[in-house]
């Protein structure tokens, strides 16, 4: 696997450009990056399910946004992992807010029983 340049990046950029006109081509990019994106998410999220959800959300957002990808600004890989980063940050924030909400409920229940 090449992560850092050369033919892979050129190929990624060509595939990404083609995806705007033919979304079915996105499958090649998905196959190339799904394991790496999953590992990225899994290292940062607390459960397998959260990592799987974040991986799915990353690729759904990438496909939805592929028309806005600009090869002159970033490699496809960089762009994809920026999306993954934002998805993970959102997932961590949601988990944090849920935990805080649960804690508030517990505190209220305790206050009501005393």
Mean pLDDT: 83
Helical segment tally?
Answer: 4
First-last Cα distance: 61 Å
Radius of gyration: 19 Å
Task: Give a verbal description of the structure.
The chain is elongated. The relative contact order is 0.12. It has helices at residues 7-21, 26-44, 48-65, 76-113. The protein has one domain (7-113): RNA polymerase sigma factor, region 2, helix turn helix motif (Rna Polymerase Sigma Factor, Chain: A, Orthogonal Bundle). The chain contains four helices and no strands. The chain is 79% helix and 0% strand. With 114 residues, the chain is an all-alpha fold.
Question: What's the SSE blueprint?
Answer:
Elements: H1 7-21, H2 26-44, H3 48-65, H4 76-113
Helix pairs in contact: 2-3, 2-4, 3-4
Briefly summarize what is shown.
The relative contact order is 0.12. The protein has helices at residues 7-21, 26-44, 48-65, 76-113.
Give the tags.
114 residues; mainly alpha; Rna Polymerase Sigma Factor, Chain: A; elongated; disordered N terminus
């Amino acid at each position: 696997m090449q992560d850092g340049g050369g033919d892979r990046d050129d190929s990624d950029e060509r595939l990404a450009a083609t995806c705007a006109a033919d979304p079915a081509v996105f499958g090649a990019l998905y196959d190339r990056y799904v394991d790496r994106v999953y590992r990225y998410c899994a290292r940062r999220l607390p459960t397998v399910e959260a990592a799987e959800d974040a991986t799915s959300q990353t690729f759904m957002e990438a496909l939805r946004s592929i028309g806005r990808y600009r090869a002159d600004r970033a490699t496809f890989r960089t762009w994809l992992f920026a999306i993954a980063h934002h998805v993970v940050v959102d997932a961590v924030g949601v988990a944090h807010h849920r935990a805080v909400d649960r804690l508030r409920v517990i505190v209220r229940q305790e206050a009501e029983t005393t």
